Amino acid sequence: MKNNSLEIPKLNFDANGSLVIVASETSSKHDFDFFQGKSIIQNRKLKKRFANCTEWIEFPSTQEMYKILNGIGNIDNFLATFNGEPFEGMTVRLFNPATKLWSIYWSDSTTGVLDQPVIGSFEDNVGHFFSEDTFEGRNVIQVFRWDARDKKKPIWSQAMSDDKGKTWEWNWFMFMTKTN
User: pTM score, two decimals?
Assistant: First the structure.
C-alpha cells in the first residue's frame, strides 16, 4: 500500500545522491514544547511493510516527555504491551542551535541500541524528520511526521519510501491525547 495521502515536502539530494535536509526559517528549540508532560496514545501500525499489506494492528500506550539540556533537548518514555509482554521505547531529541535542525534518536527494550537519527524541523506546527536507512535489505528513506496543529491531540506518523521519495508507505500512526 503506497500513497501520498499525507503531504511530505519535496526532497533534495546532493550531487552524490545523498539526502540534503535544511531547517525551516522558524525552527526553534521550542518546537516540541507541546509534547511536554503525559499522553495516552492510540497506535495504528501496519502489520507488514512493503508487502501490499492492508491489515493494521491497533493498541494503546502511554508516553511521558520532559526537557533536558536547558531546553535544547528532550526525552520521552513510551510504554505498551505487545503479545502480553511489556515493551518500553525511548526517544532522545536534540536541537542544534547552529543548524536549527532537530535530531531524533529511538531505542527500545527489544534492541537496546540507539537507531540512526531522523533529522528535520517544524514549519507551521508540522514537523518532518528524515533519514536514509536500510529496511530488510532495501535502501529506504524514512520520515517521521509530527502534526502539532492541535497541541492537545498531536499526531505522529511514520512512512518509508524505497523510490527516493516518489511514493510513500505509511506504516504507523500515533493519535495522542495530552493528559497534563
Answer: 0.91
